[in-house]
Structures are given as structure tokens and as C-alpha cells.
Write a structure and sequence with these properties.
It contains 1 helix and no strands. The protein is mainly alpha-helical and about 100 residues long.
């Protein structure tokens, strides 16, 4: 009877260890799934970052072009102002000549 009790105790310990192993395996699988999910999110964030970088470069090019156009517009405006002053002077001169 004593050997039977020892065998029964060993059987209970083995069963407990088997349950522990099963739980450990489930936790390990869960952690693996979590790790894969983190990798997927990281890849998607990397793709977003690359796309945002491309957009930023494109926006920078647009901004530089807009700055060049603004400078050109300023130069044209100054030239128009000079032409307007010259036209005003010519008009005054013409008016004085007619008087």
C-alpha cells in the first residue's frame, strides 16, 4: 500500500507538472503572437514614416518653388512700380507741354 501511495503522489506531481508545461506553452504561444503583432505594427509604422518622409521632401520642393515664385513676383511688382512712376512722370511732362 505504501508503494501505491508513493506512486499516486508521483502521479499527482507528474500531472501538476504536465499542467504547468501546458500553461507555459500557452503563455509562450501568446507571447509569440504578441511579438508578431508588434513586428507588424513596427513594419506599418516604418512604411508610414517612409511615406511621410517622401511627402515632406515633396512639400519642401513645393515650398522652395513657391519661394522662387514669390521672389519673382516681388521683382515684377518692383518693375511695375518703376514703370508706373515713369508713366506718371511722362504724363506730367506731357501735361506741362500742352499747357
Amino acid at each position: 500500500m505504501r508503494i501505491g501511495a508513493v506512486n499516486q503522489e508521483l502521479g499527482a506531481i507528474t500531472l501538476d507538472f504536465g499542467c504547468y508545461c501546458t500553461r507555459y506553452r500557452a503563455v509562450t504561444h501568446g507571447f509569440g503572437a504578441f511579438t508578431r503583432e508588434i513586428c507588424t505594427v513596427t513594419r506599418k509604422f516604418g512604411a508610414f514614416t517612409r511615406e511621410f518622409g517622401a511627402f515632406t521632401r515633396e512639400f519642401g520642393a513645393f515650398t522652395r518653388e513657391f519661394g522662387a515664385n514669390t521672389r519673382e513676383f516681388g521683382a515684377n511688382t518692383r518693375e511695375f512700380g518703376a514703370n508706373t512712376r515713369e508713366f506718371g512722370a511722362n504724363t506730367r511732362e506731357l501735361v506741362f507741354k500742352q499747357e
